[in-house]
Amino acid sequence: MDWIRIVQKAIDEIELNIYEEMDADLLSGHQFVSSFYFQKMFSALCGCTVGEYIRNRRLTLAGYEIANTEQSILNIAMKYCYDSAEGFSKAFTRFHEISPLAARKNKSNLKAFAKISLIKNLTGGKVMLGNLEERGYIVKETGAVYYTTDMDRTLSWFTDILGWYGQIEARNELNEGTYGCVNNIPIEIESLRIAPFTGIHMFRGEPIKRVVGFMLIQGVEQLYSFVKSRGWNEISEVENQPWGGKTCSVTTIDGSILTFFE
Known about the structure:
By secondary structure, this protein is α+β, with helices and mostly antiparallel strands. Helix content is 42%, strand content 19%. The strands form 2 sheets. It has a 5-stranded mixed beta sheet with strand order 1-6-9-8-7, with no helix packed on it. The protein has a 4-stranded mixed beta sheet with strand order 2-5-4-3, with helices on one face.
């Protein structure tokens, strides 16, 4: 499931309906996903809850209107879905560290919470996701076991050529990698365990010079184009199969073969 696009669509919906009542249940329903998982993924990707995002965006826009228009504070409060001027004033003061009246009087520099764009990056720069958009394909099912005698080199190959993410989790006394994972999505998201594992387990050992993974993906032509654009030519042409799918195979830096199908 492409949670990045789902959450971004919800953010776009919030921005278009910022003056309307909305919550996580409503937003998740419009995306046809579980409210529970939606809220977990929203928090993981955005660094704040759905409610916090809505509130911070409303208070940012309300601050601009208070400082730059003559509308009454009550009208602005009601416009941004607050039931009373008192409740709005308390929330405004917590967020901006100045009351609405003082902000209007002093034309103070107020805080701003910008719209989040997940395609560029996540809040705070924790996880860069731009290459997911550049990569253009999504791995839906894998779980292969992969052997390599140089895990650092192999990990670099997966990140540079396939656009995956990964880390080495165990090393021996010579600092050689003995266990690691490469993942279709960032480790921070994979660790939430809200979707099937879409990565490969790496172990130290002699590489297997044959097919070691048969992986379901979305966007096999995009995979082919992406790998070729990275300067890696050990990839077969996309083939239409008698069973109705499409496949292509990539020979890795270790000589192992990963077959992708759609």
